[in-house]
Design a protein that fits this description.
11% helix; single chain; five-stranded mixed β-sheet
Length: 92
């Protein structure tokens, strides 16, 4: 990541079931970054080391409750659910 980029948040990848799987934290994870002009973008996390660095510099989130369009009843997005702690690869 470039020096003029700031990590705003780390988004955890999709989990195939509801149980927390700490061995797969970095798999599918992306970070939200902001450049010096304020432009936001997503960057893929490519290694466990990169994941550790990003998670210590920002909050970690996973997909939360669906946001439903009140008229069409379609899912238009998801809330971000914060993961309170990732110490030693586990959630507290």
């Amino acid at each position: 990541m470039k020096d003029d980029m700031e990590t705003v948040a780390l988004l955890l990848g999709e989990q195939s079931d509801d149980r927390w799987q700490p061995q797969e934290l970095a798999e599918g994870a992306v970070r939200i970054v902001r450049d010096a002009e304020g432009t936001m973008k997503l960057e893929k996390i490519s290694s466990e080391e990169e994941f550790e660095e990003a998670s210590s510099a920002s909050g970690c989130f996973r997909r939360g409750t669906p946001i439903i369009d009140p008229e069409t009843r379609e899912v238009i997005g998801y809330e971000m659910e914060e993961v309170p702690s990732l110490k030693n690869g586990t959630e507290n």
